[in-house]
Design a protein that fits this description.
By secondary structure, this protein is α+β, with helices and mostly antiparallel strands. Helix content is about 25%, strand content about 25%. The protein has two domains: about 5-95 and about 165-370, Fumarylacetoacetase-like, C-terminal domain (Fumarylacetoacetate hydrolase, domain 2); about 95-160, no CATH class. Strand 13 (about 260-265) and strand 14 (about 275-280) form a beta hairpin.
């Protein structure tokens, strides 16, 4: 890529000096949780050897940590900012996303058939689906009408029905962080990034912060069958989070998440550039409702991350008329929000991405070898 290489790197938000951030950095001896408070870096490994322990500790002042001076973003090897938390995701939480999922299903993953289906579906439900409250009487009436028209879909069920779609995006410790390679299955030919905001939720079920994320989606796999969701969503390096978690305080609240704009830029080695935006004001379900539904009849003793969905569904043609968008190896994907910073990743195939090697056992062995396990994970 031509130009300033720093322009392609992840970055902190402009007001980072006033916020409180948490993350994980790779040191010479292994991964370590840290806090950035007022621009100052505190390594917290001695008092909280995992991100889960740091969040459950609840003290985000830097007390007890090793003060390492002013945080220099470019000098750190940042990992995904979460470790033992489960990584969950909610899908079809925006109207456009719902329409595109129905198109994938109707086209059976064939991009050739997508354009005509998109036009028919948007003409029939585009306005209606945006105006109804999920689970309401109006939503039930719309469902009846769509069934009569032969347009009903399992995706519309989770878009406007009472129950949100909640699935597991990636195994514990499998997500990648800022400036890492992000993976697309080598046998996928229709796919896209999903720029989202992800909540970090404590074991008590309380949202404690938020971060940017890329919930990579394989439209051909999921379009062929919803039962292929696991293959469409969970592959090597297919989940990116970061650059850091911004913890909720007076400078950043859940209302900032509710009002957030998430911008996306894809820059290809072929000169292709795609810009998009997802606005959380248009989400169909409130973030707290998504958290509540994730917790319904389930516990997360190490907390969890929750992707909340995206409005972004690219239909712009990349190579030939009617084919729409799909990734190419080498694409640089930049996801931005003014309060959460800029998360950048480069697309490779999941087969060629660095292999995932540090699982839970390896992490515990590393922490034990460093003398950091004292009864708390």
């Amino acid at each position: 890529m031509e130009g300033d290489p720093q322009a392609n790197r992840s970055a902190m938000p402009d007001d980072w000096m006033t916020g409180v951030f948490a993350g994980r950095r790779l040191t010479e001896v292994g991964p370590s949780p840290f806090l950035v408070v007022g621009g100052e870096l505190y390594d917290m490994a001695q008092v909280a050897p995992t991100m889960t322990a740091l969040i459950e500790r609840g003290d985000f002042t830097g007390n007890g940590g090793e003060h390492l001076g002013r945080f220099a973003f470019a000098d750190e090897h940042l990992l995904s900012p979460v470790d033992l938390q489960c990584i969950k995701a909610c899908g079809v939480t925006f109207a456009v996303s719902a329409i595109e999922r129905v198109i994938e299903e109707s086209a059976r993953g064939d991009w050739n058939a997508a354009s005509a289906i998109r036009e028919r579906l948007e003409t029939r439900v585009g306005g209606s689906i945006r105006s109804v409250v999920p689970g309401s009487a109006e939503a039930a009436a719309l469902k009846t009408a769509l069934i009569e028209d032969g347009l009903w879909s399992q995706y519309l069920e989770v878009a406007i029905g009472p129950d949100a779609e909640v699935f597991t995006k990636a195994p514990v410790l499998a997500s990648v962080g800022a400036d890492a390679a992000i993976g697309i299955r080598s046998d996928s030919h229709w796919n896209n990034p999903e720029p989202e905001i992800a909540l970090l939720v404590s074991s008590a079920g309380n949202p404690v912060g938020a971060m940017l994320g890329n919930d990579v989606n394989l439209r051909d796999f999921e379009g062929r069958s919803a039962l292929l969701l696991g293959k469409a969503k969970d592959n090597n390096a297919s989940c990116a989070l970061g650059p850091l978690v911004r913890l909720f305080d007076s400078s950043f609240t859940l209302d900032d998440v509710r009002q957030a704009d998430v911008r996306l830029t894809i820059t290809g080695e072929d000169g292709f550039v795609l810009n998009g935006e997802s606005n959380m004001r248009e989400i169909s379900r409130d973030p707290l409702d998504l958290v509540r539904q994730t917790l319904s009849e389930h516990q997360y003793p190490d907390g969890f991350v929750l992707f909340m969905g995206t409005l972004f569904a690219p239909v712009e043609d990349r190579d030939e008329p009617g084919r729409g968008f799909t990734h190419k190896v080498g694409d640089i994907v930049a996801i931005e929000n003014r309060k959460l910073g800029r998360l950048v990743n480069t697309v490779v195939t999941s087969r060629d991405a660095p292999p995932w090697q540090m699982g839970i056992g390896a992490l515990m062995a590393n922490l034990a070898g460093r003398g950091l396990l004292r009864g708390a994970a």
